[in-house]
Amino acid sequence: MNALEARGLACSRGGIPLFRDVSFALTSGEWIAVRGQNGSGKTTLLRCASGLTRFDAGEVLWNGQDAGTGPIAFRAQLLYAGHAAGIKDDLTAMENLRDALALRAGAPTNEALRGALAQVGLDRHRHLPARRLSAGQRRRIGLARLALDPAMLWVLDEPLTALDDAGQTIFSDLLQRHLARGGLALVATHHEVAPAPARELRLVP
Amino acid sequence: MSAVAAGSFSGAFRWAFARDLRLSWRHPGETMLMVAFFVLVASLFPLGVGAEPQLLQRIGPGVIWVCALLAAFLSLPALFAGDYADGTLEQMLLSPHPMSGWVSGKIAAHWMASGIPLTLLSPFLALQYGLDAGTLTILACALALGTPLLSLLGAACAALTLGARGAGMLLALLALPLFVPVLIFGAGAAEAQSSGLSPSPHLSLLGAGLIVGAMALPAAACVAIRIALD
Asked: Is residue A82 in some structural domain?
C-alpha cells in the first residue's frame, strides 16, 4: 500500500496567494481529480505535490515520510507529466519514448517499446521524427510512457489536451489498469474521465 | 541505452551525454556554424592587419584564443534553453538521480561538440600566423585544457539566465567577463612558449582552474536550474 498525503498546502506566485490550506489524501487504487478555473493554481498544486515548486506552508507526505527530505524513495515512484512533454523534435517517437523511460525507470526492450506505441496507435509512425507528428500524436507518446513506466504515483497535468476520443479512451484504460495494480494518480483535468475519481479537489481563487 | 539504477550519478551522466551528442549529431548545423565562425574570424585578422610576419606571430595566439572563446560562446544559449522549454529539465529534476549527473553530462557533451573541434582546428589556423611547431602544440594544449573550463563556466551562466527575457544578451554580459582569466592564461601559455619562456605555469593554472571548475560549477548550475524551475 502506498499513500500520498498533503496537509495545509499554501502557495503564492509573485506575491499573489494562489491557494491556501489545501489538504488531500490518496491511497493505492485511488485517483483525485483537481479541478478549477484557469489560473486557480491547478498546475502549481501539482508542481508543489511533486516537489518542483516550493510551497509557503504545509507538507507533502509519501507513505508517512516527508516527500521533500526523502526524495529518492519518492521520486523513484513518481511520474510527473506537465504541459511540456519533454519530447525532442529531432528524435523519433521510438527514441523519445526510450529516452523518457531510461531517464527515470530503466531500459525497456524494443518489443516492449513497439508494443506500447502500437497500443497508442503510433505503430506506423514510430520511426518518424517527432517534428512530423501532430499535437495529439505527440501526446500519445506520453500515453505510451504511462503504459511502460512502473511508477506508482502519477501526477498528470491536463493529460487529455489535444487527444481525440480514441486517445481519451486509451487514457481511461491506462488509468484503470494503473489503479487496478495499486497505483495512485493526481490529475488536473477539465474532462470527465471514465473510472470516476475517488475525490474531487476544487480550487477556488 | 542501458538501465539507470536509482540515485546513480554515472547513469544520469551517461544518459545526458549520449543524448545530447546524438542530438548534435542529428542536427549538425549548429556545430558547423560554430566551426565556420571560428575559421572565418581567425582568417579575417591576417587580412585586416596585413601580412607582416612579426606582427602576426605576436598577435596569433591571442587572436586564436579570442576566436575560440567567442565560437564556444555561440552555442551556450541553447545549452539548457531547449530542455527548459520542452520540459526535459523538469523530468531530470524529478528523476531519482542526482541533478548534477544530468548537468555534468550535458556540459561534457557541449565540450565534445564545441571545445574538441575548436582544439583540433586551432593548429591549422595558427599556421596562417606563422607560429612555430612548439607554439602550435602549446596553443592546442592550452585550448584542450581551457575549452572544458569555458563550457563549465558558460553552463553555470546559461543556467542562471534560464527563463530570463533577453537571455542571450544577459548571458554574454555574465559569461564573457568570467572567461577573461581563461583567456589570459591560455593565450599566455602560447606567448610564453614563443618568447622562449616555460609555458608550464600557465598550463598548470589552467589545469587547476579546470579541476576546481569541474567540482564546483555543475553544482552551481544545478542550483540555478532549480531556481529557474521553481
From this structure: no
